[in-house]
Design brief:
alpha/beta; Rossmann fold; seven-stranded mixed sheet; 7 helices; 7 strands; globular
């Protein structure tokens, strides 16, 4: 009888762990650490992450390879990270936190800037190329091409050879005025991903 009870307890514990895993999500905002990068186009992923923590009424805490915050949303456990490895080494941070938190790959979504999209437009994909983005390139080295991502358009108003200066440059006054509405839209897309799933989010937000 005692053995049966122990086995039943082990079964229920494993079942609970599995259920918990199915209700956990990891949202990543890409950017570069340091005050000089705070308001640059390349750091819009960090802006999204910050806005998510405000929505969840929580705050970031420093951790290994990233700052991490967590909150509950409609019964789901949401973890948000901002890698502290600089953009080019984002993959190491993402993989570490996926393993540490036991997050399934299809419960991961990455927020990143994209110069190939018009300012303010978003494109949501389940997989794809890195598009020349160093952060995505490094994540791809660790996870492959099949992971969820939200690309946020920052425009491409620069001359040949000035791409780095552009993405590491600050927003124009006009762009700053428009940012809050764009950030709110992307935050809602992330939360809908958590609650409604990737398929519904793609249909609802792509190209908006």
């Amino acid at each position: 009888m005692k053995i049966i009870i122990i086995r039943l307890f082990d079964f229920l514990l494993k079942k609970q762990i599995k259920e918990d895993n199915s209700m956990k999500y990891l949202i990543v905002g890409l950017g570069n650490i340091g005050e000089e990068y705070v308001d640059t186009r390349h750091n819009i992923g960090f802006k999204i992450a910050d806005a998510l923590t405000e929505k969840g009424k929580t705050a970031f805490k420093s951790g290994k390879l990233a700052s991490m915050a967590q909150f509950k949303y409609r019964g789901r456990q949401v973890f948000v990270i901002k890698p502290s490895t600089f953009m080019n080494l984002s993959g190491k941070s993402v993989l570490f936190w996926m393993k540490k938190l036991d997050i399934k790959k299809d419960h991961l979504i990455v927020n990143v800037d994209d110069i190939n999209l018009e300012f303010g437009k978003i494109r949501i994909r389940k997989k794809g190329s890195d598009g020349g983005h160093n952060g995505l390139k490094d994540i791809q080295n660790f996870l492959g091409k099949d992971y969820n991502r939200i690309r946020i358009g920052v425009g491409n108003d620069f001359h040949k050879g000035q791409q780095v200066d552009y993405v590491l440059g600050e927003w124009t006054a006009e762009q700053k005025d428009a940012l809050p509405a764009i950030i709110e839209k992307v935050v809602n897309a992330n939360l809908d991903f958590v609650f409604r799933g990737m398929h519904n989010v793609i249909n609802a937000y792509n190209g908006k």
